[in-house]
Design goal:
The complex is a heterodimer. Chain A is of the alpha+beta class. Chain A has two domains: 81 residues, ATP Synthase, domain 1 (Sandwich); 41 residues. Chain A has two helices and nine strands; from the N terminus they run E-E-E-E-E-E-E-E-E-H-H. In chain A, strands 1, 2, 3, 4, 5, 6, 7, 8 and 9 form a nine-stranded mixed sheet that branches. In chain A, helix 1 packs antiparallel against helix 2. The longest helix of chain A is centred in the last third of the chain and has 18 residues. Chain B is of the alpha/beta class. Chain B has a single domain, classed as Pyruvate Kinase, Chain: A, domain 1 (3-Layer(aba) Sandwich), CATH 3.40.1380. Chain B is built from six helices and six strands. In chain B, strand 4 and strand 5 form a beta hairpin. In chain B, helix 1 packs antiparallel against helix 6 and helix 3 packs parallel to helix 4. Chain B is elongated and about 110 Å long. Chain B starts with a helix and ends with a helix. The chains are: A alpha+beta, B alpha/beta. Chains A and B meet through strand 4 and strand 7 of A and helix 1, helix 5, strand 6 and helix 6 of B. Strand 4 of chain A pairs parallel with strand 6 of chain B.
Chain lengths: 132, 289
């Protein structure tokens, strides 16, 4: 069994990380999961949360708000709408995210109301999770 | 022959013009590098997005429940053209080439009996389209206050387009912009956004599990893919604009240089002529004595 896999984290504006990782902890829309090498091919959406990638010697943590994860034999690609390294995040930034989620929820069509509310709740949860 | 003083002022004025165009060229070169970098940085996201889309769409395209963004509304009567141009001029044929392509596209559509609606991004394109197509304008996006083009700018455009699409204002959406090839070549391009054009990877696509199910992912992915395409278009445009401006200003600088040379020769000739004239007068005056 291969014990390393390629991990890529890209946001629309730039590539944030690309390295060999042994495991990646992902905040999936339907629950957190950890992808390890040779994980079954999977595509999932993400909820706002913290993503952890264990590389050689170091663990990188990122705060992500929504996006997609593609897990395949070749590795893990994370397409995050918005991603910030954990040590660069501040309380203000998270509060801005909450405000954005709330304004998005205000104009969403009724069918997607639940998803929008969940996004607000998840983003609020971030504050606690990050200990800010 | 023009008098010496006039010539001198003209030379001075062309010289200062040359200084300005030279400065603009250098500014454009610096901005171009940044714009190219931004476009480069955005590429991995776009590529991945297209790949995931390709896999998903392959399965969904045939099904009846395929979302409207992918399958279309079932008609193609009303077309929305997004014309993305720059906020500033002095960039050669950059804006005209986009507008020309959009106009011919619009004319073809109208000739085929379709309705055309136009959304403009950037002031220059709007000005050029206004003469003939002002009646089709539905919205305008102003980026003149934007210093660095970000994903949020594309999101704003995409949100507007999606809301209008949901409201049934149009069936097909196409965006017009310039693809950056090199400093001297930018290729005006039309790209269809809705229904989404998906490049399906040939061969066997890896079998993915989807969480939540495929439809839900697709419903979330499609608007994002469209936003990404708009973002890419805006970034390409930004790089093209700077490239076009750089070469336009390079030409202007060179022309100003040639002009200065010509004027300087003329100036020297006139000066010499004046001296010769004076000498002749003195000599003939002396001979007459």
């Amino acid at each position: 069994m291969a014990d390393m896999m390629q991990f890529d984290l890209v946001s629309p504006e730039r590539m944030l990380a690309s390295f060999e990782a042994s495991e990646v902890e992902i905040p999936g829309a339907e629950g957190d999961f950890t992808a390890m090498p040779d994980h079954a091919a999977l595509v999932t959406t993400m909820r706002p949360g913290v993503l952890k990638a264990k590389g050689a010697g170091q663990t990188s943590e990122y705060v992500v708000t929504g996006g997609f994860v593609e897990v395949s034999g070749a590795g893990v690609s994370v397409l995050a709408e918005h991603a910030v390294p954990r040590d660069e995040i501040s309380r203000d930034a998270v509060e801005a995210m909450i405000a954005e989620a709330e304004s998005a929820a205000a104009e969403v069509t009724p069918g997607l109301k639940d998803a929008a509310d969940k996004r607000i709740a998840d983003t609020r949860g971030l504050l606690e999770q990050l200990g800010l | 022959m023009a008098n010496l003083k006039d010539l001198k002022t003209r030379i001075e004025s062309v010289k200062s013009t040359r200084k300005i165009t030279k400065a603009m060229q250098m500014v454009a070169a610096a901005k171009l590098r940044r714009a190219q970098e931004a476009a480069e940085n955005a590429r991995p996201y776009g590529e991945r997005m297209a790949a995931v889309m390709g896999n998903l769409a392959q399965g969904a395209a045939g099904s009846e429940t395929a979302p409207k963004l992918l399958a279309g509304t079932g008609s193609d009567k009303v077309h929305l053209l997004i014309v993305a141009t720059s906020e500033r001029g002095l960039c050669g044929g950059f804006n005209s080439s986009i507008v020309k392509l959009a106009k011919s596209h619009a004319e073809n559509l109208v000739a085929a009996g379709k309705t055309v609606k136009i959304l403009t991004v950037g002031k220059k394109g709007r000005e050029q389209m206004k003469r003939e197509w002002a009646g089709s304008f539905i919205a305008h996006v102003d980026h003149s206050a934007v210093k660095k083009l970000g994903y949020v700018n594309a999101q704003a455009v995409a949100r507007d387009v999606l809301q209008r699409f949901e409201a049934g204002e149009f069936d097909v959406v196409t965006i017009f912009y310039n693809v950056f090839q090199s400093v001297v070549t930018q290729i005006p391009t039309a790209r269809q956004l809705i229904p989404a054009e998906v490049e399906t990877a040939g061969g066997d696509a890896p079998f993915y599990e989807y969480e939540p199910d495929e439809d839900e992912i697709l419903a979330e992915l499609l608007p994002r893919a469209m936003t990404t395409q708009i973002f890419t278009a805006l970034l390409e445009n930004a790089a093209s604009e700077q490239g076009a401006r750089m070469s336009a200003m390079d030409n202007a600088t060179r022309n100003a240089g040639e002009m200065i040379e010509k004027l300087t020769i003329e100036y020297n000739r006139s000066r010499q002529a004046a001296i010769t004239n004076e000498l002749i007068e003195i000599i003939s005056g002396a001979e007459a004595l």
